[in-house]
Each structure stands twice: as structure tokens, then as C-alpha cells.
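Incident log, entry 3
Record: Aminotransferase class I/classII large domain-containing protein (393 residues)
Problem: checksum mismatch between cached and fresh output.
Input:
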Amino acid sequence: MDKYETKAKYNVAESCAASISLEDLQQLSDDKSNPLNVSSRKLTYGAIRGSNELRSNLANLYSSKSSTQLRVEDIIITPGAIAANLAVLYALVGKGSHVVCHYPTYQQLYEIPRSLGAEVTFWRSSEKDKWHLDLEALKGLLRPDTKLIIINNPQNPTGAIIPKATLEGLVAIAQERDITILSDEVYRPMFHSISPMDEDFPPSILQFPYAKAVATGSLSKAYSLAGIRVGWIASRSPELVDACAQARDYTTISVSQIDDQIAAYALSPNCIHSLLARNLKLARTNLEILDKFIEQHRWACEWIRPVAGTTAFVKFNKMGSEVDDVAFCRELLEATGVMFCPGKRCFGGNEDFKGYVRVGYCCETKVLEDGLASLAHFMKGDYKRLPLANGHP
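Fresh output:
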């Protein structure tokens, strides 16, 4: 992403819902009498763990369908979910720790534990099972020294969810063995293809009666505000919250007061519903466009249609054999300006996810339409010359 995204004409790799400006944000607010004003506040460090206004808004969101109110003190504001995950991992794992991590997923969730000296075991999902996780498989992965189970729900890059029943089973297993759960919920609540009334609809990990659970999130993905760099750590365990706060003491101190103020405004009752409605509509519209493209190119690509989030994992092949996804993404970008993320390079290792690309379909609709039109033209010509993942032409 860092190397190529500024060069792409059609960035269909981005995992955020199409970004908005502060002016756009104010237009989405139901209260036009209370404009966003970030110019009058003195720019001190501010509240170290985050403003009461922002943390109150988050606490109310987590508590909306829970029997127990999440407290303001249960939340720490961080510079994005990436910093939230780092603080949790730095606080909880180290040399000699054993960690089980949902896979495939965002690389940070397993590479940071490894860098801290932990041994990481993958809890694998596969396309043939619609990217679902198996609780019996999890039991076989756990060890007496397992310290942490990491999940990503909704999931990047597949757009799958971990359904409620699986979460219930996960919590029971973790509780029985006294293992902490870290749930990266950065794509919550982008549930565009499942109703809250559906029995599989996944609640936050914090809505289960297990104190040793931590959720992380941010304003970047579902809320279109990656540029303000605001995320959070939330847990019902004061000990876990304090440990994360201590891990953060010598890194970021606090977030920008300006960012905090904008985030509180976005998550206020006057704004959040319109903002989410805008992004859910965008996701549903764009997903239908991507679905149509895939149906028209079934000779070359396949997928499990996403249920939530902003990304899809699409597998490309020639005559039944996976294409070299890295070569595909590179040549596609050079020929058309269309950017995807290669699955093997960005989400796998060794022989995992050959032929897969991550598509970020929640960009501006025009970008997606034009990008897929360019891809369709590429499929008629240059695609035939792509090498296969096994090295053959």
C-alpha cells in the first residue's frame, strides 16, 4: 500500500469506506445549530486517556444492546486501531508467550506478537468453509501456556463474520482456560449484508460476560475518517485497561485534541446514524457492482461474497490454476492504474493464498466502476499472458 497507493489511478485496494471531509461530516449531522469548531481550544496534551465526551459516546455504543453499561473508564483513546492493537499486544505478550491468531487476517495481529518473542499458531479459516472458524480446531491449538486468542470480526480481507454462536463457544473455551481474547473490531459496524435480527449476527466481544476480553476499533474503516487517526481500546477488566495504558505511557501519551474533538462529534447521536447510513448504502451499492463483475468473469475469478466490512478476497485463475497474484497486481497497476492487494504478499506466507487479491470495494462508486471497466479490458488481453502461481506461463 505504501509503495503503490499514491501512484494508482483507481485505488481499489483501500480498506476504508470512502473518506469524507470535515465539511461533509457537518452536513451529515442532524444538529446544524452546533457546528464543529476545532479552532478555539488550547492545544495542550488534553485528557491522557481521551476526552470524557468521546469515551462516553463509545461507551454508549458498546452498551446499547448489553445488560451492563460500559464505563468511560473502560476505554482508552489511541492514534488509530493500529496503535490500539500494538498497546494491547505489548502489554499482554512477550518472549515465551503462546498466541493463537485468526487467519487470514491483518498482518499486524500476528507479526507484532512474533516480534515480541511470542510463538504464534494460526487458527485457520478456508474458502471451502466460507471462511468460518472451527471451535474444535481451536481446542486442538491451545496449550497450557496459551496467553491470548486474537480474532478479527468483521474480518479483513475476506469480509466474513464470526457468527454469534461461534463467539459464544470461543468465550466459553477462553473462560475455561483463563485466556484473554483480543477482538479487532475495526470494521464494526459495517454489517451491510446481515440483519441485527439474524441469529448469526455477531455482537461485540464486550457483550459477553467475560472480563478478560479486549476490543479495539477506530474511526478509519466504517466511519470514513482515517485522517484523524483515532482508535480505541475497550475492556471490562480494569486490570487489562491499566496494563494497556501503562504500555502506552512511553509512546503516544495522548491523541491530538483536534482529532479527539472531531471523533466525539462524529460518534455523537446527532451524527453517527447518518454517517453509518451513508457508508452502508455505499457498501451495498458497490458490492452489487463488484458482484456483477465477478459473475461476468466466472471463467477467471471466484469468491465468497462478503457479509460485512469493506473488503473482499477474490481468487483469480487461468484454466483452473491460480495466477501469480503479485505479478497480476503489478502488471494490472502498470497497464491500467488499477490497484489491488496481492493475497500471498499481503496476507499469507509460503504457499498461502496464491491467486487471491484483496479488493476494497467501498471506495467512491465512480472509482470502482471505472476501475472494474479497466480491469475488464485487461482481462480480454494482458490477463492471458500472466504467469501462474506455480511459475508456469
